[in-house]
Amino acid sequence: MTNPAPLLDVSGLTVSYGAVEAVRGIDLKVTKGEIVTLLGANGAGKSSTLNALVGLAPRRARQLSFAGEDIAHLTPELIVRRGMTLVPEGRRIFPTLTVAEHLLLGGAKHAARGPLAETQAEMLALFPILKERLHQKAGSLSGGEQQMLAVARALMSSPDLLLLDEPSLGLAPQVVDRIFALISDLRARGLTILLVEQNVALALDIADRGYVLVNGRIEIAGSARDLMASAAIRDAYLGA
Amino acid sequence: MTLRKTLSLTALTLGLAAPALAEDLTIGLATAQTGGLAPYDQPSLAGFEMRVDEINAAGGIAGKFPIKLIAKDTRSDAAQTALVAQELVDAGVQIMITPCDADPSIAAGMITQGAGIPAFSFCATTPTLPLAVGDFMFGNYPADNVQAAMLAGHAIEAGYKTAYILTSPDSAYTLKLPQYFGQAFAAKGGTVLGEGTFAMGQQDFSAEVTKIAAMDPKPDVIMTAAYEPDFPAFVRQLRGAGVTTQVLGSDGIDSPTTFAMGDLVEGVVFSTAGFATEGSALAAFNAKYKEKTGEEPNTVYIANGYDLGTVIEVAVTKADSLDPAAIRDAIASLENVEGVTGAISYAGTMGMPLRSVSLVRIVGGNRELVTQGVPAPEEVPAP
Amino acid sequence: MDIFLQQLLNALSLGGTYALLALGLAVVFSIIGLINFAHGELMTAAGYVMAFALAAALPFPLAIALAVAAPVLLATAMERVAFRPVRGASGTTLLLTSFAVSAILRVLFQNFISARPVPVPMPSALSGVINLGPLHLGIIQSISIATTALMLIGLTLFLNRTVAGRAMRAASEDFAIVRLMGLRANGVVATAFAISGLLAGVAGLLWVAQRGSVDPLMGFLPVLKAFIAAIIGGLGSLTGAVAGGFLLGFIEVTLQAWLPEAWLPYRDAVAIMLVIAVLLFRPQGLLARKTVLKL
Ligand SMILES: Nc1ncnc2c1ncn2[C@@H]1O[C@H](COP(=O)(O)OP(=O)(O)OP(=O)(O)O)[C@@H](O)[C@H]1O
Ligand SMILES: [Mg+2]
Fold it and tell me: Distance (Å) from the C-alpha of residue C163 to the closest C-alpha of chain A?
């Protein structure tokens, strides 16, 4: 069985905020075309991991490479320009900027007007609701619409690897379903995804593989099917 | 900001054949090298140092008391001035010189008064300064009420019947000088139509100027002791509101900025401590200063500082002693000391010098002498 | 009525200058959480360059261009040398750094230029009067109002029509996320400083035009006013800073114009009390906005 070089290859990743060590030397691999999910209880270090990968959280690592390149010393802006981006926890849209302005800024890495317009058209086709709200301030959108906008904004940079931090947080069940349908759709278009999710059943349903983070360490790793079957996971997350 | 410079001129004097009994007169300079008072203290100090150098080059006061200066920066802060004054007293100074403003001078004076050391303010003009401190405190500049009396005399002579005064409660100078003017003007039969106020340094006079523009009848003359940056801003806005009333100012506006204002200040008359008429001692001093430093003396504070050197020289000569109390008594009895700005007397003046005030008119960007002299004591409003 | 209109124009002119300054403070604060007390020294720098350019007999438009360019350069240099190393540090550290920069510049001005005011001889054409019926508007006052309007329009266009401007607005809401758009954090911060330098330069020239001189301490008071204006408006809100600047101008002129004579010496105290009253009702300022400062 051939093992292609992983798109994201991390070993010994540590994130500490002063004295607090949120992530303690984890190893992580994501291969092109996969959906990998990162599970864990509140405060386990999931967001810290994703933030560290894009350079927003203070990090140390033995190895931190993306698409074969060392990114350990790159700033977030350079990492994003290399093709990895994050949809942060809590959406973090800019309330006073319009939807169109979000898409424009999201696509700032496209120097030329052509590709920018093309990507924007693609996003509006993918998220018809954003087209209707194009000149509305993002702060006035509903929670679900804001989440769509956060994803669209990230996709505007045409990433190869998308990190998603709890995209279902605080959304109604129907909206959550739509978000997950969207994630499958994105994978079908060739995007690689690293997904942090509280809704373990949904996440494992859609993912190929998963890691379980406990107190900043990876305790369990395996295929989604194995994890789903694991008694430990069932006990911890899926209820009796 | 802790820029401290300690000047010592003893080195200069050591090379000279000093008499066997040569004893230094140590003068402490608790003045501002930085901050808001620096523009006044620095030129005063330059003139003062020039005179001290001359005295030392001639072998010291009366050929036997070389002068040693110790300068410490007060940063234009009253508390710092008191601190510096204490350090200088501890260093054994026999005479203290304090900044060009009453507040820090009072702060320093409290210390010198207690230590029994005579102190001069370089150019504070508040007539109550020596009264506030005590008999060891002296001024070195024509007091506010003296300037005001000269200006009021001029206003009456020029035929002005009504005046408006513009004051700022932010300093004794900007508040009291125009009020002294008002008193002297009223005493001579003039009428003060009103008093406007401004906050120093804010340079927005639009509201005040609009009020003046709306006055009916308009005053014949407006008097203010505002200075930079307020005076230029006031005049600009006054003229900008179409008011052409004559303006009288005081010595604070004797600065290059005023003269750079062109038509706006045409005809403005102000009081100052000295005017160099041809052949006068001040003209000779200005020429000497230019020769020595290569720069035009652009303010009278330089000559005024220079004259303080002479006052001290005469007083110490008269006391023939370095005892601070003897020096104080000598200062208080000085009469008609010949300074480059005119005769200077302390006898019977309660600490502020009686010395010449010049009134100057700005004409075409140049100075034109209106009058020069010392007002009659009965015309000077009581402090 | 005429006098009322006249005072209104006065307030507009004064408030406009405060607004430009407050805006300069707010642009930087909204992005990196720094209250730049060295903003006043940027004004002073503009004044000195104007003074020297006029003394060197350079053409007036060139002198203005240089005088506005100088604080822009100085502001970006300040950012690069002093503020970048402490970016993301606590508010206190940032504040102290800006105090230090301000003090150092003042001492440099004092020691290398002069402690005394340096005259800035504005062309005499600027000291005329425009008569609009019963209203008298000084030319400098009109220029002040017109320039403020132009600057505000220009800045609004920049912030709403260009990518860099939108990035700045976004950065003022969530700096970290702007970096996730692939936009350089340093570029955004440098732009903010350059704009604050431009605003300080223009305000500095308007200020110097009134007073005819520049001295090392010139910037202190206006920046204090601008700080108050920015607080009234809600620190970090750009529209708030402009509103705060105009409000402060109106308060000051109105009090000076209509406060009883005996109260005038307390004008500033009354003005500050009104400001405090505003803050009692709107503790976050008039147009407050939650500031997200995550780096
Ligand atoms: N900026 C920060 N400064 C200090 N500590 C932090 C910071 N961010 C996170 N932490 C701490 O790091 C630990 C991990 O936090 P993190 O946000 O990564 O957890 P999480 O797994 O994403 O949790 P949740 O499911 O609640 O989002 C927590 O103890 C948290 O308090
Ligand atoms: Mg999280």
Answer: 7
How far apart CA C156 and CA C27 sit, in angstroms, is 12
> A52 contacts in C (CB within 8 Å)?
none
Residue range B297-325: mean pLDDT, rounded: 94
pLDDT tens per residue across span B173-183: 899 999 999 99
State whether residue A68 is helix, strand or coil.
coil
Q: Is A20 in the pocket of ligand 1 (CB under 6 A)?
A: yes
Q: What is the pLDDT of residue B3?
A: 36
Contact B228 C213 (CB under 8 A): yes
Contacts of A80 in chain C (CB under 8 A): 179-182
Owning domain of residue B365: 144-272+358-379
Q: How far, in Å, are A83, A128, A165, B68 from residue A90 at the CA level? A: 22, 22, 8, 73
Q: Which of C185, C186, C193 lies closest to C75, judged by CA?
A: C193
The CA distance from A82 to A62, in Å, is: 20
| DSSP letters spanning C47-101 | HHHHHHHHHTT--HHHHHHHHHHHHHHHHHHHIIIIIGGGTTS-HHHHHHHHHHH
* Beta carbons within 10 angstroms of residue A60's beta carbon: 14
Number of domains in chain B: 2
Q: Which two tokens stand for residue C78?
A: 């300040």
Q: Of C110, C111, C137, C248, which to mutate for an interface test with B (greatest number of B Cβ within 10 Å)?
A: C110
| pLDDT tens sequence across C261-282 | 778 778 888 888 888 888 888 7
Model pLDDT, residue C283: 77
Q: Let me know whether B48 and B96 are in one domain.
A: yes
CATH number for the domain that contains residue C81: 1.10.3470
Does residue B13 or residue C67 have the better pLDDT?
Answer: C67
Question: Model-level pTM?
Answer: 0.82
Cβ contact C127–B263 (<8 Å): yes
What pLDDT shows up at residue C210?
Answer: 87
Q: What percent of chain B has pLDDT over 90?
A: 70
Nearest residue of C to residue B240, measured between CA atoms? C138
State the helix-helix crossing angle for C185-211 and C139-161, rounded to 10 degrees: 170
Q: Residue A235 — very low, low, confident or very high, per pLDDT cuts 50/70/90?
A: low
Q: Is the beta carbon of A88 within 6 A of some atom in ligand 1?
A: no
What is the extent of the structural domain holding C13? Answer: 2-111+136-281
Topology at the third CATH level for domain A8-238: Rossmann fold (3.40.50)
Pair of tokens at residue B14: 């050591």
For residue A3, the model assigns a pLDDT of 61
**pLDDT value at position A1?**
45
Residue B293 has pLDDT above 70, yes or no: yes
Which residues have C-beta within 8 Å of that of residue C228, sequence separation ≥ 6? C244, C248, C272, C275
Q: What tokens were used for B132?
A: 């506030």
User: What pLDDT score was predicted for residue A94?
Assistant: 94
Query: Are B181 and B37 within one domain?
Result: no
Answer whether residue B90 shows pLDDT above 90: yes
Q: Which of C3, C111, C124 sits opposite B214 (nearest CB)?
A: C3
Question: Do residues B74 and B3 make contact, with C-beta atoms less than 8 angstroms apart?
Answer: no
Angle at A182 between CA A179 and CA A185, to 5 degrees: 160
pLDDT at site A109: 82
- Dump pLDDT digits (tens) for B63-84: 999 999 999 999 999 999 999 9
**Packing angle of the helix pair A99-106, A143-155 (nearest 10 deg):** 30
> 């009072």: which residue's tokens?
B106
CATH of the domain at B82: 3.40.50.2300
Distance A42 CA to ligand 2 centre (A): 7
Percentage of chain B exceeding pLDDT 70: 94
In this structure, are B87 and B124 located in the same domain?
A: yes
Closest among B227, B213, B303, B306 to B265, alpha carbons compared:
B227
Residue C271 lies in a domain: yes
